[in-house]
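Page 47, continued from p. 46.
Same chain as before, 499 aa.
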Amino acid sequence: MTIPLARHSDAALHADPTRVIARLFLPGEERPLEHSRAGAVVARVMAIPEIDVEQQVAQLVADFAGRHWNYAAMLSEHAAMVSSHVQHAAEMSSDRALLMGACFTAEYAVEGAALCNPSAVLHPIQDGLQPGQARLAVSLRGIGEGHVSSIGFATAVVGPEATWTFEPRALPAVAGTSSAARWRREHLRAVLADEGHIDELAYSVLAGLPEAFTSADLQLALAGAHRDLRARLGSTATIAVLRQLVASAYELAFPDGIDLSQQVLLPSSDEERNGMEDARFVRFVADDGTAEYRATYTAYDGRQIAPRLLTSPDLRVFRAHRLAGPAAQNKGMALFPRLVGGRHLALCRSDGECSSLTASADGFVWGEPELLQVPEATWETLQVGNCGTPIETNEGWLVLTHGVGPMRTYAIGAILLELDQPTRVLRKLEHPLLQARRDDRDGYVPNVVYSCGGVVHDGVLWLPYGIGDARIGVAWIPVDELIAAMTAQPASTRSYTRR
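Result:
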């Protein structure tokens, strides 16, 4: 067996069960087909003597205020959400309101089950470093109760030379504040086509929308549609899909003074309520030199998956949107870090087992995928895919890949694509760059090594990766050494089949 090329750093990151988020909890609604017991709980809280209320709130503050950002304000907000059950809500004392809110609040450990599948990009803040160092922002997939995934972050300092150090992660963990985001009309049209809901009512509503619109504009367009269209068979389903899709786009903002490592992106729309999985971040640089952060991720609602996009100018404010088009049909899209030939490009696996390349005019609606790589080696018999955004080198686009082989074992490989014509594979690593070592086989999901993106610093490829879907390790290799180890592919351009 060939020994994998990558070297291993001593750096590691483990799931931290103290990273908890306090979120709204409605007793009864956590189980399907049951109703909230909020009214009965409210009545019991209102019957507690005031002196007992004060003592209980003092204990709550002592126990939990240090574990959560703006704890009292959050409890007050949760109390307000159930105030419709209180006949004289305005007459509640401030302490009773806090106790009421606490009865409708529960802690959720975002990494209670596992921590895995990181991606690394250059951090927007590079202050306080020594020569030869760079600070990285590392996205993380945290898995909590119910196997629900969220997106968290760590920071690391790389260099000088072959050194990687994770910086301490700050507490408490903080969930952002969500608000509605704007849509473009043609983007919505493409998503509706994917969903199979382009009927006459949808056409009418789209015609009534401005080019850029909000959920309020959607309501006006629905009201303006002819009532006979709204009354037709199937119209109720179309209206529900329109409202759900438009509501799925949101903006998430974090308070000033919060460290990146405190930030947690929790599911905020119906189509991601069971998880936000495997974010692949990239620092995207436009032709005019402006930069922003983008990430694809997989939304899961408990039944279906949907590829989605995050955009952020600073990793503090995020906008989340649905992706659309023939290529946006499965897991694992990875964006190129710049336009190529005036187009957005991305790697995808729309058929579930082969890697392809797709293009987009706007970064939201993606065209037909072109086949790029099929499973060939034994260690990729089941499927191949990417391990994050392509990395630009002088020799070509370096693409880290993953393969799944016998016993569902994962390994990481690499291919090199032509810079101006990325459909052409120039070189390929015939043996794994990285695979699970004996001490890394066990975990939440055994025999898995998986990354959502590496980064190059001073000629060295750094690859944070998930181990057994349970913890994070770091590997590295000089880029020149990796490319030299690849086998040149036939010079003739392959004949690619649109899939």
